[in-house]
Task: structure prediction
Amino acid sequence: MKHHKSIASKFAMTPDELSTWKENGYFVRYDVFTEKENDILRQIADDIVDGKRHFPTDNINQNALVRDGKVEATGIHAMHKIHHISVYIPEFLARVRDPRLTDPIVDLIGPNILGLNNLYIWKSPQIGLGFPWHQDKWYFNWQYRTEMTVGTWTAIDAADRDNGCLYVIPGSHKLGILKHEDLEGSQQNEFKIARDAKDEDGVAVEVPPGSVIWFNNQLLHKSTDNHSLRFRRCNVAHYISADAERIPKKEGSTIRPVMWVRGDTYSEKMEPVYQDVQPIPES
Result:
């Protein structure tokens, strides 16, 4: 991993965080966002589901159990995620560009940053589904040639073992990209699983609301089902350096927006064509 010399920034990584990042592939900060700030995002997402804000329906996904008729639920209890939400909602775009998220990323991939995707995820009480071991960069490698991309995972609610928190395998970002295979069944058949990952190597990352997890997109991670009576909501944003070389768009592929976050866009390398080979996994 190249270490980029940090420009002066209020929320830059500390030496301990950088050491933890290099060794484990992730680090955590607490109390990054306030309850009031997260409530703004929560209310907007709920309003989208309730039809109070216009939003493309193709970007909203139901919980697979509801979709497949295995359980009954309505409103936000029936929801799974909204993707590319920052493309349409200014408050989410402001969050993606917030220096509290992006200052540490400058230290990791440099000052010129683009946004790959922004997901708002519901994990509904008792029916919210987890996802198996995977590496996000397995998906991104279909789109870009780049050494590293970075994900951020912001807790809207408390995340713990009962309601389906993240699990990571510390140090697995050093393994390279593992083979990912198809999942069986309709619930998650659009996603892949890194079958060589072992549950016994996983560590639960339990965090209170307002916390942020920064993780190398080669880090093996998963989440578990929500067995509690509480929601487990989160806001996820993935970032890439503008130095990344885009892999040529395949004929017939659809547009995946890549958004300016900060610095220079390097438009000569990032042509305005987009590739949507695989959906980005949620955790």
In short: Residues 35-49 form the longest helix (15 residues). The longest strand covers residues 113-121. Confidence is low (pLDDT under 50) at residues 267-282. The radius of gyration is 18 Å.
